[in-house]
Amino acid sequence: MSATVADMHDSHDHHGPVHTGIKRWLFATNHKDIGTLYLVFALVMLFVGGLMALIIRAELFQPGLQFVDPDFFNQMTTMHALIMVFGMIMPAFAGFANWMIPMMIGAPDMALPRLNNWSFWLLPFAATLLVSTLFMPGGAPASGWTLYPPLVLQTGDAFPFAIFAIHLLGISSIMAAINIIVTILNLRTPSMSLLQMPMFVWSWLITAYLLILVMPVLAGGVTMLLMDQFFGTSFFEAAGGGDPVLFQHIFWFFGHPEVYIIILPAFGIISHVIPAFSRKPLFGHNAMVYATACIAFLSCVVWAHHMFTVGMPLAGQMFFMFATMLIAIPTGVKIFNWTATMWQGALTFETPMLFAIAFLFLFTIGGFTGVMMAMVPLDFQYHDSYFIVAHFHYVLVPGALFGAIAGCYFWLPKWTGHMYDERLGKIHFWLTTIFVNLTFFPQHFVGLAGMPRRIPDYAVQFTNFNMMSSIGAFGFGFSQLLLVYVIYKCVKGGAKATAEVWDNPEGLEWTVPSPAPYHTFEVPPVYTPRYGATH
Amino acid sequence: MGAQAMTTDDDNRRRKIRTNAIVLGLVAFAVFIGFIMLMGLRG
After folding, report:
1. Which of A367, A386, A356 lies closest to A329, judged by CA?
2. Which residue of A has its CA nearest to B19?
3. A213–B31: do the CB atoms touch at under 8 Å?
4. Beta-carbon count within 10 A of A180 CB
5. What angle do CA A419, A103, A363 make, to 5 degrees?
6. pLDDT digits (tens, 9 = 90+) for A290-324
7. C-alpha distances in angstroms, A190 versus A194, A248, A520, A523, A534?
8. B10: exposed, middle or buried (C-beta count within 10 Å: 0-12, 13-18, 19+)?
9. For A83-149, where are the alpha helices, taking DSSP H only?
């Protein structure tokens, strides 16, 4: 099959971009170009959001107020979260989706290339608008990324601009989701059945449905905030018959599926990396698909576990507690399947595999603390403490971000045609993994001991752990410069990558040359499952 | 399969892509508007 596909490409790779220079990127409709744009944008935003994290950690290095005033500190926690969630990790996975989904399903491009261009180009403007709120009178929103009223309504002139930025980011995500669903359902090579699709494609299909379900709810919620502020409604204002808790319900009906929107594509990437370096097919492919769908469904019925402390009927607490704990089952299926994939495999430990294995261990730590917090009586203790900061950073950093970094190392040779520097990659891995634990592990202890989150000052007994955490954060931040260097070096040159890159990995993307030609699969390829699987 | 048939296939596929995209867009818009209206009505 690969010979046929390679022959097919020989006759086509004279097609390059229509435009050159800046126009190539501004008017990009090619999925690979747009994927690159997304990934570069995400990398830039990683450092913008990271800088804010370092301001937070510098302030928390010791008790007392050091560098910033408390209001600016709160602006930093809010903007750090909004930028990392909407500006960094979601665009990063959209970049992977753009690059890899058409190649994995044998499609020539995304189904709606011009919509794709628009999805991307909304992002830099939305992100600039969001960051510009820092320079407006009254500063950026300082209510936390959850934007709870009435606190968020105290934001100065920046309020409508921040809301508009969130609208734009939402529109971008919804358009990307529509594009991904339509591409997968309509442009898949006819010889590939739905269940035969690779896990990354499956995770993105499910994620895209989640996006279409919940992003409009966030847009509705923030629009209601806007109406309360400027048009005299009182959706969330008790004095007018509204209820501020309603916003929390709306926000978390979006917010909880959002965390799965972030993590599911990472699961997809890990499901490719582990089999490739174990030299075995993914254990229980179909079970993985059903588990992913199950996680996505459950994610929509657990939102109020973020709100146990606002007070709710006992039946509500019980429902949300048990529904939340149920998520551990499909997640456990995935963790055990990845482990079973490695079992008796011929393992090698290249950088993507190292990140994938670290993902398995560290994401599981975040998952376990999640189950702890699902329990109502325990949540009353942990709520709004640094324990929760530790929990979600374990899920998002060594979880989602490590998934993205693993994917980046895994597919860089396919994108650039060069092998990355393995030695530097491994150094990057070890620095990142050591520092990420140094940053976030101590936060469990200070949280359990009672240190609240989103506070610029703290009691002296928390000093030592906070110092460790701050040192870890700076180490982690600077280690990521190494990632930029590795990518730069790989783009510029290096050992030539073969079409397969790794040791005989499965998937259509490895049948095209490296770097992948500008246009791939103009004729649908014939897909034959490697292992004779009936899935 | 002749050229004519291929064109019809392509047209059908284009129509299907467009329909799918519009339906998904409408679903998103309906969730957005429906949600606000629902919240407005509950008082």
Report:
1. A367
2. A182
3. yes
4. 27
5. 70
6. 999 999 999 999 999 999 999 899 999 999 999 99
7. 10, 44, 16, 11, 16
8. exposed
9. 90-104, 113-132
Q: Rounded distance, CA A204 to CA A247, Å? A: 28
Alpha-carbon gap: A119 to the closest alpha carbon of chain B (Å): 13
Digit-coded pLDDT (tens) for A136-195: 999 999 999 999 999 999 999 999 999 999 999 999 999 999 999 999 999 999 999 999
The DSSP letter of residue A499 is: S
Q: Domain residues for B20?
A: 1-43
Assess whether the previous peptide bond of A265 is cis (omega < 30° from 0).
no
Note whether A281 and A531 are within 8 A (CB). yes
Contact (CB, 8 A) for A246 and A253: no
- Element spanning A195, H or E: none
Interior angle at CA A65, CA A60 and CA A68, nearest 5: 85
Looking up tokens 């390829």, which residue turns up?
A525
d(CA B9, nearest CA chain A) in Å: 12
Distance CA A499, CA A504 (A): 10
Distance CA A367, CA A361 (A): 10
pLDDT at B38: 79
Q: Say how far apart CA A1 and CA A4 lie, in whole Å.
A: 5
Please list the residues that pair with A496 across neighbouring strands: A418
Candidates A136, A154, A133, A152; CA nearest to A144 is A152
Structure-block tokens of residue A350: 């290249």
Which residue in A304, A174, A215 sits closest to A252, CA to CA? A304
Residue keyed to tokens 């002296």: A460
Nearest in space to A246 (alpha carbons), one of B23, B35, B22, B3: B35
CA-nearest of A328, A310, A454 to A376 is A310
> Is residue A72 a contact partner of residue A460, using CB atoms and an 8 Å limit?
no
Residue labelled with tokens 């490719």? A272
pLDDT of residue A17: 86
| Longest CA pairwise span in chain B (Å) | 62
Angle at A452 between CA A295 and CA A80, to 5 degrees: 65
10 Å CB burial of residue A453 (0-12, 13-18, 19+) is: middle
At A409-422, the pLDDT tens digits run 999 999 999 999 99
User: CB of A232 within 8 Å of any CB in chain B?
Assistant: no
Residue A86 DSSP class:
I
Q: Which of A180, A186, A235, A246 to mutate to test the interface with B (most CBs of B within 10 A)?
A: A186
User: Tokens for A428?
Assistant: 């990057």
- CB count within 10 Å of CB A505 equals 17
CA B36 to chain centre: 21
Residue type, B28: A
Total of domains in chain B: 1
Active-site positions of A read 80, 109, 145, 172-173, 256, 258, 260, 271, 305-306, 331, 334, 453
Gap from B6 CA to chain A (nearest CA, Å): 13
Residue B4 clears pLDDT 80, i.e. is over it = no
